Amino acid sequence: MPQHIARTEKQLGAILRRARKQAGLTQSELGKNIHLRQGTVSRLEAGAPAVQLHTLIEALAALDLELVVRPRSKASAADIESAF
Amino acid sequence: MPQHIARTEKQLGAILRRARKQAGLTQSELGKNIHLRQGTVSRLEAGAPAVQLHTLIEALAALDLELVVRPRSKASAADIESAF
DNA sequence: CCCCAATATACGCGATCGCGTATATATAGT
DNA sequence: ACTATATATACGCGATCGCGTATATTGGGG
Question: Which of A38, A43, B16, B21 is the one with CA 20 to 30 A from B31?
Answer without folding.
Answer: A43
